[in-house]
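1st attempt posting a full record on here, be nice pls
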Amino acid sequence: MTIETATLAGGCFWCTEAVYNDVIGVQKVESGYIGGKVPDPTYKQVCGGDTGHAEAIRVTFDRDQISYGELLDIFFATHDPTTLNRQGNDVGTQYRSAIFPHDEAQEAEARAAIERNAGGWPNPIVTTIEPLSTWYPAEDYHQEYWNGDGQRNPYCLSVIPPKLQKLRKSFAARSKAQTAAA
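the predicted structure (as tokens):
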């Protein structure tokens, strides 16, 4: 087992966390904040849009089961990387599409993934590649949100199932749910 970490921001972290929890080779997904200027931000502060942080996920994965490039392809397929500081009705820099590489190899792969996925979108990809900075885990109630309170949250019920369907259709061999059903 070769463990690696990816840090990605693709809008609401509840949504991206739900997607990556269904990916084979993913060991853990943690929701949190990165890329801002305020130490130890709270959810309320980040949602206010003044801290500079993005809602993001930190994905711990087994590189022997899934590559960083494949994780990025899933990232580009399950959120809209062409809308600046926005995912659906979530608007603000905290919802930006961003990749935070952990080393030079991840940065090179992030650039390659942007190029590789650009043709699949009618508009240019605006995903940024930002320097890795201090990671702040989100409050406990945000962790594994879809598996708990998210099942009763109307926002999550309207946004997450289509993302999971896209994952399970486009990346069936990578979905824990799809391979369990087969």
